Structures are given as structure tokens and as C-alpha cells.
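Long-time lurker, first post. I've been practising inverse folding by hand and with some scripts of my own, and I keep getting stuck on stretches where the C-alpha cells seem ambiguous. Below is the full C-alpha cell string for one chain I'm working on. Before anyone asks, I'm not after the true native sequence, just a reasonable design that respects the backbone. If someone could post their per-position residues I'd love to compare against what I wrote down in my notebook.
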């Protein structure tokens, strides 16, 4: 009964005082954007066939997508500090919609890669603005608010990829990706209507000078974020390597059909819908270190036994085990939001996330190169080993941010 009362209290706090529609619109937009991004791995077998791509080049395509998402987060953070978050997030949704039109009409691999990079850049405008506006709406419940938002992202990743895969199987891959364009236009309209506009303000990085950059770096150094950023990099490397080629692995090594692989891939994110709100609330209650270790133990076991599992029901169990690592995002991003001073929060988050995610984006292409050389199974064992390192590093972290 106590758990039920706690959940009801958290829900009341998140929805009350007119905050509910704001949270719903932000979370809904995040769900559509993340769902769009995760259609790529499901459609990768079709893209490889249509454009004659090897596993390495297919992994590179996913890496290009993630590089776009990563590289744009620093300018996205600067824009979030300087301008209205509403305008930044609306612009992101519109850029992704336009870029997808270019992807589905791409006549050559070069155009496909360029348009995919633009999809990533459009998506990069949303994440930092989402965190900064939520930190203002929920100054005392950022973990819970981010957990709900990220869970909605996983709901989008659960629903949209199998729909895209089914449409691709029934018609063509272009329709399996293009159907989200109208959804993105709706997202842009809802965000513009529901979210409050904020006038442009002065920012510590209004001018891209060495002095302003030094000021931001100094504030981040005082917040002692380098260690957390390194852990975040390792986690992103693991997560992007796993998600980027998991449906392809299920098709090529486990013998599943593309549609079943897409459904199993959605199961991974379906569990995240449950895990992320719990992980965010756990951060608010027990701190970074213990919450992070709890969500990372299961994935070590799951990744280690994945190469030795063949039956479908066992693959479902393994996928569920690995999925608990999705909770780490709600924990680490809440910690970063608390630790970074408010006046440079958007820019600081952009620096940390861009650095970590850019390096982590190399994961899919490196993983694809291993797979091309006959080490697909061994790649998952390597990921399990890296995750063990992440857990040991996590044990050295303080329970709370110093900010």
C-alpha cells in the first residue's frame, strides 16, 4: 500500500498546478523523436539490401545518425540557454521531418548518409532544451520528471519501430520510415501551442570567445563532472553498439524474421517504460551510485549469455535483462542537471553530452566491423566486460552531486 501511495503522490506532484500538459507535450515529442531514431536499426536489413551495404557500412550509417545527434547537442544547449526552449524543440521536430523526406527519396548511398546525418542534427536540438525546461518546471523532482519523459521515449521506441518494420515488410522501407513525418508535424504544432514562450536572455556564452568558453569549462570543472562524463561515454558506447545492430543480429545469427526481430527489439524498450520512472525516482531517493549499480547488474548477465541463447522465449528473457540499463539515462542526466550551475545548464549539458555521445557514437561502426570479421557473438561478450568496468567506476561516485 505504501508503494501505491508513493506512486500516487509522485503522479499528483508531477501533474498538479497546470504542469501536466507541459510534461505530456514534452514527453510526447520525445517519444516520437526517439521512436523515429530507433526505426533505423529495424530497417537496416532493408537498407543494406537496397543500397548494397556491408555490416560495417550499415553500422557506419547508424554511427552517422548518432554523430548528428551528438554533435548538435552543444549548439542545442547554447540555444536553450539563449532562446526559448519551445522554439528550439519545435525547430528540432521540423528539421527531422524535412530530413526524413530526403532519406526516403535518396537515390544514392551518399544522399542517404547525408540525409541521415541531418536527421541526427535535427534530433540533437531537442534533448538539452527538454532537460532545461523540465528543471525549471520541476526543480525538486527533476529525476521523476525526466524518468517519466524518458519512459515515454521508450514507449515511442516500443511502438514505432515494429510499425515501421511491418509497413516495410508489407510495402517498402520508404513507407516504414516516412509514416512518422506527419507525426513530427503534429508534435511541432502541439509544442508551439502548449509550451510557454520565454524571451531571449543574456547567456554566459552569447559570444563564442575564449573567455566565455573558459568560464563554462571552469564551472564544469568545479562541479567535478569529468568522471561522470567518462562513465556516460562508456554507457553510450555500449548502448549504441547494442541497439544499432541488435535486430540485424537476431535476423542473421538467431534466424528470426525481420518482423519478429523488430517486435523483440520493441520489447527492449517496452521494459524501459517501467524502468525509467523507477530509476528516476530512485535517484531522487537513494542517490546516484546505488541507483546506477542496481540498473546495470542485470545487463551484464544478459549480454554475457546472449551468444549462447537460441530459443525465442530465452531471447525475450535476455532482452528484458539487458533493458534495465535504460534506467541509467534518467539517473545520470538527473545528476548532471543537479550538478551544473543553472546559468550554464544548457551549455554545460551540451558540452558533457556532446563529448560523451560523439565518442560513444563510434560504437555501431566498430561493432559492425567486428561482426563483418566473424566476431558478432564475441562483440556482446566484450560489451558485457565494458559494462563491468562501468559498474566498478560507478562504485567510486558520490551519492549526490555537489551542485
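-- Answer (accepted) --
I ran through it position by position. Result:
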Amino acid at each position: 500500500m505504501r508503494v501505491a501511495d508513493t506512486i500516487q503522490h509522485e503522479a499528483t506532484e508531477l501533474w498538479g498546478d497546470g504542469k501536466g500538459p507541459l510534461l505530456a507535450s514534452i514527453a510526447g515529442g520525445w517519444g516520437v523523436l526517439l521512436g523515429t531514431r530507433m526505426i533505423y536499426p529495424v530497417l537496416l536489413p532493408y537498407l543494406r539490401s537496397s543500397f548494397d551495404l556491408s555490416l560495417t557500412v550499415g553500422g557506419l550509417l547508424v554511427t552517422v545518425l548518432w554523430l548528428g545527434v551528438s554533435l548538435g547537442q552543444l549548439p542545442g544547449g547554447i540555444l536553450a540557454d539563449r532562446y526559448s526552449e519551445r522554439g528550439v524543440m519545435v525547430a528540432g521536430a521540423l528539421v527531422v521531418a524535412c530530413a526524413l523526406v530526403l532519406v526516403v527519396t535518396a537515390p544514392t548511398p551518399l544522399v542517404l548518409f547525408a540525409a541521415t546525418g541531418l536527421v541526427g542534427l535535427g534530433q540533437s536540438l531537442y534533448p538539452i532544451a527538454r532537460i532545461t525546461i523540465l528543471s525549471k518546471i520541476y526543480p525538486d523532482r527533476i529525476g521523476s520528471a525526466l524518468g517519466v519523459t524518458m519512459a515515454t521515449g521508450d514507449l515511442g521506441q516500443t511502438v514505432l519501430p515494429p510499425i515501421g518494420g511491418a509497413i516495410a515488410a508489407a510495402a517498402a522501407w520508404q513507407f516504414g520510415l516516412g509514416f512518422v513525418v506527419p507525426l513530427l508535424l503534429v508534435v511541432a504544432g502541439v509544442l508551439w501551442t502548449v509550451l510557454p514562450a520565454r524571451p531571449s536572455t543574456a547567456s554566459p556564452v552569447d559570444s563564442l570567445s575564449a573567455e566565455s568558453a573558459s568560464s563554462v569549462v571552469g564551472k564544469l570543472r568545479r562541479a567535478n563532472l569529468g568522471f561522470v562524463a567518462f562513465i556516460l561515454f562508456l554507457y553510450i558506447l555500449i548502448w549504441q553498439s547494442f541497439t544499432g545492430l541488435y535486430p540485424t543480429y537476431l535476423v542473421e545469427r538467431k534466424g528470426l524474421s525481420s518482423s519478429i526481430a523488430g517486435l523483440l527489439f520493441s520489447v527492449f524498450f517496452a521494459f524501459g517504460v517501467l524502468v525509467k520512472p523507477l530509476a528516476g525516482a530512485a535517484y531522487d531517493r537513494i542517490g546516484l551510485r546505488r541507483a546506477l549499480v542496481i540498473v546495470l547488474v542485470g545487463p551484464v548477465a544478459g549480454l554475457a549469455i546472449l551468444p549462447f541463447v537460441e530459443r525465442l522465449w530465452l531471447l525475450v528473457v535476455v532482452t528484458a535483462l539487458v533493458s534495465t540499463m535504460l534506467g541509467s539515462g534518467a539517473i545520470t542526466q538527473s545528476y548532471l542537471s543537479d550538478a551544473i550551475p543553472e546559468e550554464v545548464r544548457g551549455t554545460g549539458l551540451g558540452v558533457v553530452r556532446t563529448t560523451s555521445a560523439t565518442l560513444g557514437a563510434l560504437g555501431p561502426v566498430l561493432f559492425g566491423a567486428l561482426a563483418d570479421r566473424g566476431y558478432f557473438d564475441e562483440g556482446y561478450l566484450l560489451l558485457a566486460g565494458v559494462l563491468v568496468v562501468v559498474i566498478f567506476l560507478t562504485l567510486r561516485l558520490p551519492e549526490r552531486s555537489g551542485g
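A couple of notes from the structure itself: The radius of gyration is 20 Å. The chain has a mean pLDDT of 83. Happy to go over any region you disagree with.
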